């Protein structure tokens, strides 16, 4: 048979089509348009003008530096904390499941909300100063988030992002850990490995695919960090995404904004490639 | 030996509780502020316990110009996003889960690849396009971009939901007299429903939280995060804190509802 | 109830040829077993008959009706899946009644029919439960009940017992046999368990790499395997195959085995110099402690006491042979036993093709002595 009947791949194709069209329409085409926009003047002629304006802008280099600095600070901390949380949540002790749920709570919290939550803590009369005074360490409040000290703002952003987005990493790792922790962990225990050795020689190597996934996702999102920076720093601390936003909304210039978004895309692509290469997994190593 | 085990246990609980406090304390503090009188924000020093409960701050936030309209917009956008991404994503997820077809792995990779495209690269050109076709500053404009963001995610989740429902069940239904469509409707769909509902609610949270595209694609029809971020620098501190709490609360409730599915939801999308 | 005919069915998955032009006929009311090692295409064949898989070519008939292009629901078949595929969101009653509802059978009659099969399978007490509240064995019965209630032309079963523990499997096997006798239904049954196949099947089709190698009654398959593969796949221990060469002697041809000469019956298409295999079942080997004419010496290597009998591995020259002895006979490794092979129990195979060689005339020579030295 088969003759005269629809081929077998027709149904899956039909089911995939709407989603594929939608993604083409709202991801592929805009990306191409962004490319055009970034190489055009507002008048509509081809030009490198948007890139020139972006690069010569005094805020460009700080924005690039801050974005990369944030990633370099946030992600290692998140990785360690997330792994700790995941190991706690996956242990066999009582209450582990409950802690898992608690640790996952920030998943539902937006960047903007997280920024505001930590603003309540870091602001001049915020809870951090209240606590420091309660401990008797200070008399007058310290100004953590000031125009003069972008570093303070940067560190506040690091704290807020670690607080909010560690949950994403943890959940990804938990998914991977569930497969490892049973027999392999016990086997390592039988052969006398201590906690750190178990982590070093069993968990981390086997967890590589999950680590890779978690790192890629987190880095991709981190390149887009925006609302938390605005909430904690006003406009003081430029990052790439906030510059794209400002150029579009404030300066009404979609061309330079598009150029910024291309920079973000390029960095994302490089980072993804980097992780895929550095953490590459040889299939035979996973034994599945 | 026994003593060592006891110490290990104590260390474990201390670590676990410390991390729990790290997660929970900030939420408690913002809640505390949101339910204190407005001027409490400026008081120095200020109590760490809920001694002066008041709805004043929240009332101020809710009755501020634009808050209610923005909340309504946020809900509308989130609902639109939810329906669109489920309507488009569930069939695609089903196809990925149930059929072997040429190029299946390529499709899966393509879906994963879409993650690389930042919100900025979608929303800035789309803003230009939407202005041209008159869609700018409508809930639809935001919902479309949010759907583009949530769709890959929904496809992967629904695929995993359907993968977890054995194919046998549908085939058994077909040998018992069902057409492929009725086998799907009577067997797979009911079994997938909880997972699909969780995915839908999760999409709601994604959209409810998104700010970049919402701020770029709207002017008067702001969503809540878009409203808050655009008035941030001109608004008093207590407005910001109330806004922060107001945005966190529904997301937390939804998280509570879908908690059973949480780990699958995330574990899957990152694979 | 109906006859099933499969004609030249081929099925490929990409480059894998799962079925190579399979033809078979299952008689009305027959219990037909598809037996073969893992991956030989049993499930694929069953699914093609069910209509769950499209065939690349060939035709399938159920009764006198060609069903090749029809979807499962129009074939009037029922199937029991290896995983049972009991719908988890429906109670047992609704599971069993599901197919009847799809056929729009009035609820009154549906209830009657469900009650009848539930009684037949002794699951009346479970009708109100969800599948999650059932044991594996109970789930299996629900799956069988759900298929039986449809009163299909053919009942297809894919390893329905493989998920049960050994004891339950024994019990369920007997029950299936009883069910078949009660209903007289045409059943096509897939298994890779030869004991199951032997005990259940009216006929067994042995499959290998997408082909049917032999179709016969269980006893014929056991005693007269058509190929070396069938002989070594069926029976425990598998049939012995001893390698030798046809040679020409003074009084005709004989079989040269490790320096010994054995008489050859008249065989078709055999010529001197050809390599042959002498196939013999362990229990058919005559064993003596003392040498006699026609007996070959074999050195005992391993003795495995298995309860009802002892399994002996012995060596004739360079070749190993398995034989069984009643328990209690004094045998020990290193000892020499004298073996002879009753000619009527020997299956001759061509060593190159692995195919059985037919005899020209009934073998009457040589090994006549009926009583052997066992027991
Ligand atoms: N959907 C499929 N896609 C690709 N190859 C398949 C598919 N189904 C079966 N095959 C291949 O076809 C061959 C026959 O498979 P089949 O499932 O029929 O074997 P089987 O005899 O039932 O084995 P088992 O006893 O292990 O169940 C195998 O090589 C298998 O890998
Ligand atoms: Mg099979």
The domain count of chain B comes to: 2
State the CATH superfamily name of the largest domain in chain B: MetI-like
CATH architecture annotation name of chain A: Orthogonal Bundle
**Distinct bound molecules:** adenosine-5'-triphosphate, magnesium ion
The gyration radius over C-alpha positions of chain A equals: 24 Å
By CATH, the architecture of the largest domain in chain B is named Orthogonal Bundle
Kindly give the count of domains of chain A.
1
Shape of chain B: globular
Radius of gyration of chain B: 23 Å
Measured by DSSP, the beta-strand proportion of chain B falls in under 5%
Give the topology string of chain A: H per helix, E per strand: HHHHHHHHHHHHHH
* Structural class estimated from helices and strands of chain B: mainly alpha
The beta-strand count of chain B equals 0
Low-confidence stretches of chain A: none
Order of helices and strands of chain B: HHHHHHHHHHHH
Oligomeric category: heterotrimer
Q: What average pLDDT do the residues of chain B reach? A: 87
What is the CATH third-level topology name of the largest domain in chain B?
Answer: MetI-like fold
Please describe what this structure looks like.
The complex is a heterotrimer of chains A (288), B (271) and C (375). Chain A has helices at residues 10-38, 49-56, 60-90, 96-104, 111-122, 127-134, 150-181, 183-190, 195-206, 208-222, 227-233, 240-250, 254-278, 283-286. Chain A is mostly helical. Chain A has a single domain (59-281), classed as MetI-like (MetI-like fold). Chain B has 271 residues and is mainly alpha-helical. Chain B has two domains: 1-60; 65-265, MetI-like fold (Orthogonal Bundle). Chain B contains twelve helices and no strands. By secondary structure, chain C is of the alpha+beta class. Chain C has two domains: 4-229, 3-Layer(aba) Sandwich (Rossmann fold), CATH 3.40.50; 237-350, OB fold (Dihydrolipoamide Acetyltransferase, E2P), CATH 2.40.50.140. Chain C is 22% helix and 33% strand. Chain C is built from eight helices and 20 strands. In chain C, the strands form four sheets. A six-stranded mixed beta sheet of chain C has the order 6-7-8-3-9-10, sandwiched between helices. In chain C, strand 11 (240-249) and strand 12 (252-257) form a beta hairpin. In chain C, helix 2 packs across helix 3 (107-120). The longest helix of chain C is centred in the middle third of the chain and has 18 residues, at 166-183. Chains in contact: A-B, A-C, B-C. The interface between A and B is large, with 98 and 93 residues. Magnesium ion binds next to helix 1 of chain C.
